[in-house]
Amino acid sequence: MSSSDAFSVMAGVPRDVTYASIELHGFYDMEEVPEHVFDGLHFEHGSLKIDDSHHDGVAPVLHEHSFEEMYHLEELTLSYLKLTAVPTRFGPTIMDHIVRFSLKGNDITRVGDDTCYPQNDLVEVNLAENNLEYIHPNELCGMNNLKVLDLTSAAILYIQPGTFGHAENLETLELAGNGLVSLQPGVFAGLRHVEHLDFTGSDLTWIAPGAFDDTESIRVVDMPSQHLYYIAEDAFRGLTDIEYIDLSGNHLRTLARNVFDEDLDDHHHYHHHHNDDHVHIDLTDNPLICGCDIAWLTVHPFYTTGTCTNGNNHAISLSHLHLSCP
């Protein structure tokens, strides 16, 4: 069935029925989503998905009235359609009510312009597998209710400080698979509910002091197999609730204690006395040199995995390292 035939059928489906979900996919000739084709559809907390629909040619035209007058639609998915921008010409009856919006697998380069849009009800936004490269801080303006933002493999190279300040209730931020090279001071400021940040697949070479300032709840940070030769003082300042950090597969020869908050030990003793109060640091596959500058890694609250080499080039497990240091 061609897409035009499918939309003709769609226009004729009963309007006096309540739908849980409608999916349209598998077309190769889609030129547009016709206007008013979904008018009058009633959903029960339902979803509309146009997915995997257009592999060749250009993106289909989405008219201003293509998705108008649907009732109680909560989720809209427009995936793998070669869209180059976030559609903004939707009628208010849909964009004022959907809570989950997926644009996964398109060619989107910008979330929006520099304008701060009115507040919306979006709770989940999926922009994975796009070509964003950069996110302007105002592009999340109005998303005060946002809890999940998926930016996996979105070709992001740079995140400007303040980007997530508008998404003050964000709980899940997916960043794996991007090409991030550096993390600037205050880049995650305002993430007070996110517990896990995963940079797997990035190319991090530099973490600036204060990159994690104003991030009260982050417990896990994954930075394996990056290009980290050195981590600056105060790079992890602000991670007062950190429980696990993966720095495996990097190029670190040392790691100074003042990369963390100076009150980390006291904070963990006070907040984690009923549970495991260690900070687990994974430093496996790093060329660490055994010396007093890393002796702190063997002292509470830190529990470290990995090895270092002494003057005889013997690998010594960090968990069994005993140094006589002043």
TrEMBL record:
SMART domains: LRR_TYP (SM00369)
One family name in Pfam for this protein: LRR_8
Domain of life: Eukaryota
InterPro entries in the cross-refs: Dev_Immune_Receptor, Leu-rich_rpt, Leu-rich_rpt_typical-subtyp, LRR_dom_sf
PANTHER family: FISH-LIPS, ISOFORM E (PTHR24373:SF370), SLIT RELATED LEUCINE-RICH REPEAT NEURONAL PROTEIN (PTHR24373)
Keyword Signal in record: yes
Keyword flag Oxidoreductase: no
SUPFAM superfamilies with a match to the protein in the record: L domain-like
Species for this entry: Priapulus caudatus
Keywords for the protein's UniProt record, in alphabetical order: Leucine-rich repeat, Repeat, Signal
Record-given protein name: Slit homolog 1 protein-like
